[in-house]
């Protein structure tokens, strides 16, 4: 009879433990706790839960790595676009400086030419302050318009 009571108490003790009670790293679990965790599958459930947590962490880590790679790619593309815009602006400044130099080196023949030189000097200042793509495009358009006016003036002067 004592054996049955002992067996029944062990069986009830096994049912009384939950997976949370079955800590693999517990300092000093009792023999009954160990036995009940083993027989009820509490240890297995705890291991399975921890494995799922590790897998979830790995998935999150992979997503973070992908996000980092995407961010680096976008940063590189932005850097390349900035370099292209700066090269366009430098080319526009160089063209403007050459045109201005050519006009200033020649004899100033009339009032219109003097006005064009002043406009080009103002454009040169604007080009140094341009920072956005739209500002650069506006300066490039003004330079092209000024060059067209200068060519027209030069042609008019050569026809005289």
Could you explain the architecture of this structure?
The protein folds into 2 domains: 1-40, no CATH class; 41-159, no CATH class. 84% of the residues lie in helices and 0% in strands. It is built from 5 helices and no strands. It starts with a helix and ends with a helix. The model has no long low-confidence stretch (mean pLDDT 76).
How many strands, what sense, and barrel or not for the largest sheet?
none
Count of helix runs: 5
Please tell me what the overall shape is. rod-shaped
The SS-based structural class is mainly alpha
Helices and strands in order, then pairings?
Elements: H1 2-16, H2 31-40, H3 42-105, H4 111-129, H5 133-159
What is this entry, summarized?
The chain has 160 residues and is mainly alpha-helical. 84% of the residues lie in helices and 0% in strands. It folds into two domains: 1-40, no CATH class; 41-159, no CATH class.
Q: What characteristics describe this protein?
A:
single chain; 160 residues; mainly alpha; 2 domains; 5 helices; 84% helix; 0% strand
């Amino acid at each position: 009879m004592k054996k049955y009571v002992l067996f029944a108490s062990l069986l009830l003790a096994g049912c009384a433990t939950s997976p949370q009670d079955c800590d693999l790293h517990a300092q000093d679990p009792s023999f009954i706790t160990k036995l009940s965790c083993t027989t009820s599958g509490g240890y297995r459930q705890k291991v399975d839960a921890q494995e799922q947590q590790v897998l979830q962490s790995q998935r999150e880590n992979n997503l973070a790595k992908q996000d980092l790679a995407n961010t680096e790619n976008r940063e590189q593309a932005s850097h390349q676009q900035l370099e292209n815009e700066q090269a366009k602006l430098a080319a526009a400044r160089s063209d403007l400086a050459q045109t201005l130099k050519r006009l200033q080196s020649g004899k100033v023949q009339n009032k219109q030419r003097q006005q064009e030189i002043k406009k080009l000097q103002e454009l040169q200042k604007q080009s140094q302050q341009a920072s956005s793509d739209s500002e650069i495009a506006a300066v490039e358009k003004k330079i092209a318009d000024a060059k067209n006016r200068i060519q027209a003036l030069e042609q008019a002067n050569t026809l005289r």
